[in-house]
């Protein structure tokens, strides 16, 4: 299956006064096809968010690049942004704007034609059952309501590629479950999804393939069955520890 996301030796280096050169992402390479949920699994500080921020053109890589929907993230950032939706647990909403205003605002930012935007808003309101609070200011919404609006904003321009950066952090179990079901539905819609998490159960349930990342470097890529076969371990937590220990990522 042809890849819609091709990541090629993506590297981000920061300079720190105390630690010197810090490789937040170190020659990260992988691909993702339409209808695939690709997981980036690693602890906090492993390089997951840095990788997604480079792919979404929020930050520029030090070296390497990626092609998203055939557009280069370094050379064609505007076209890349039109092809992606990026959802993060840290993404805030404009507190004085209503969900309806937010969806329309972001739709216009993406140059969605007026009639299509109207249809897209109606579709998203129906899918995520937002009709009861569409005209309520965002600062008066519950966490679950805000998350639905954030998802709607991510999808308003109907992008073929979606990035989810720890999207269930801080959510209660019911809202997190809704988020998980939504990501699963993306597979049926033939969207390419790149999903970062440090929660093993989420990765096991959602992902077709996984990249194990630690200290900015990918240590293995494969389906759960392939990683189980490679390590001889059954549970993802044990697989993760085994892979990064044997690849020099953990000191005994």
UniProtKB/TrEMBL annotation:
Tell me which UniProt keywords the record has, alphabetically. ATP-binding, Nucleotide-binding, Transport
Task: Using the record's annotation, list all stretches that form the ABC transporter domain.
Answer: 5-240
Q: Which InterPro entries match?
A: AAA+_ATPase, ABC_transporter-like_ATP-bd, ABC_transporter_ATP-binding, P-loop_NTPase
Extract one GO molecular function annotation from the record.
ATP binding
Q: Which domain of life is it from?
A: Bacteria
The record's listing under Pfam families reads:
ABC_tran
Which family, according to UniProt?
Belongs to the ABC transporter superfamily.
Q: What is this protein called?
A: ABC transporter ATP-binding protein
* Organism this protein belongs to: candidate division CSSED10-310 bacterium
Q: What lineage is on file? A: Bacteria, Bacteria division CSSED10-310
